[in-house]
Write a structure and sequence with these properties.
Layout lengths: L1 H4 L1 H19 L30 H55 L1 E2 L2 H16 L2 H9 L3 H10 L2 H12 L3 H15 L1 E2 L3
């Protein structure tokens, strides 16, 4: 009895019964007299197969997606063109900025500026030079740098400057050139801030 109740014997018996039933049902003797059914591709007018089904909404979605893709590609091309233009303009702007910086540096180098404290000191020095004889003043100016002479002339009266330049010009060709250079630089003098 114990052997009949074991699970492996029950499983084996079930498999044998299943195979026997399947063999009995599917025996070839039962199918010999029947004719096969013809399968045709003909369907009723409204009974198309699912792969031939067409949904107008789906077609509209597909068309909308195609249009959006075309529009996105056009915008991408426009953005690429704009990026190229911006890079060219940025490069040009950089070049112009560098040129302006160079011009400003050249301007700063060529223009003499006077600061307030320096102007006060120059006024005292100009008074001292004006009180000297023209020959002594020119001898002293001959020892000074051109920038300092230009700054000094900026605070002096024009008749005093004229007298000193005239005296300087009488000392020779080299001094005449220096007087001309000083006169030219005096033109580029900016007033005190």
């Amino acid at each position: 009895m114990r052997l009949l109740q074991s699970s492996w014997l029950i499983s084996l018996t079930s498999c044998i019964v299943y195979l026997a039933t399947t063999a009995a049902v599917l025996s070839s003797v039962k199918f010999e007299g029947t004719e096969p059914i013809e399968v045709t591709d003909k369907f009723a007018p409204g009974d198309d197969p699912s792969w031939k089904f067409r949904n107008p909404e789906f077609q509209q979605w597909v068309e909308d997606l195609r249009q959006e893709k075309t529009l996105a590609e056009t915008r991408k091309a426009q953005l690429n063109e704009l990026e190229t233009r911006l890079q060219a303009e940025r490069q040009e702007l950089s070049t112009v900025t560098q040129r302006v910086a160079q011009l400003q540096a050249d301007f700063e180098k060529n223009v003499v500026r006077l600061k307030d404290q320096e102007a006060k000191n120059l006024k005292r020095q100009a008074k001292a030079v004006a009180d000297m004889s023209p020959e002594a003043a020119v001898a002293m100016l001959d020892q000074m740098a051109d920038d300092d002479v230009v700054k000094l002339f900026a605070v002096m009266k024009s008749d005093q400057v004229t007298l000193l330049l005239e005296t300087l010009s009488k000392l020779g060709k080299a001094q005449t050139k220096r007087a001309a250079a000083i006169t030219e630089r005096t033109r580029h003098l900016l007033p005190t801030n």
